[in-house]
Amino acid sequence: MGFKIAVCIKPVPDPTHYDKIRIDPVRKTVVREGIPTIMNPCDKHAMEAALQLRGVDGEVTVITMAPPNAEETLREALAMGADAAILLTDRAFAGADTWATSYTLAAGLRKAGNFDIVITGTESADGATTQVPAQLAEWLGWPHLWNAVGIEKSSDSGLRIRTKSETEWSDYQVTLPCLLAVSRESNKPRLTSLMG
């Protein structure tokens, strides 16, 4: 049996254009207009983990809270192999902190359907707070693990997860639904194929 998996992705400013980023002096938010975006590098590892875990009859849906131009990032995720994409966008989301972002993503996930697993990257390249995965899991009321480096199906329809800290590895048995924040060390993201 396959899993119904959601992957939270984020378009972030392309690092080759960081010298063009500026702060709005009134709103104190990053002005992103005119700066190209890429899929957050950690989120590519989350995508790969979801695609490997999906199974034959599973489904991977990507979701993001971003401006309308995030459609390009969602198309990249679809080209990698995702089955569906959801864009949560509204001017009211501009300048959202991690609390507002995680709340909005949780509301979008609840409305989209009953997911077995939500997978995120461990952090975003532009904020690097590492707060959204745990906050999102708390809004959903789900168990969660951060810095997952290994994910396997277990015989009881749950998951076996290996996480890494600075000094040790830890192994967990997790029941579903759950949220996993995947480490960069977990896999090597696939390239977008010509067919994709």
Provide a brief overview of the structure.
The protein has helices at residues 41-53, 71-80, 98-112, 132-140, and strands spanning 4-8, 11-13, 22-23, 30-31, 37-39, 59-65, 84-88, 117-121, 144-153, 159-164, 169-174, 178-182. With 196 residues, the chain is α/β, with parallel strands linked by helices.
Structure overview:
The protein is α/β, with parallel strands linked by helices and 196 residues long. Helix content is 24%, strand content 30%. The protein has 4 helices and 12 strands; from the N terminus they run βββββαβαβαβαββββ. The strands form 3 sheets. Strands 7-6-1-8-12-9-10-11 form an 8-stranded mixed sheet. α3 crosses α4. The radius of gyration is 16 Å and the shape is globular. It starts with a strand and ends in a 14-residue tail after the last strand.
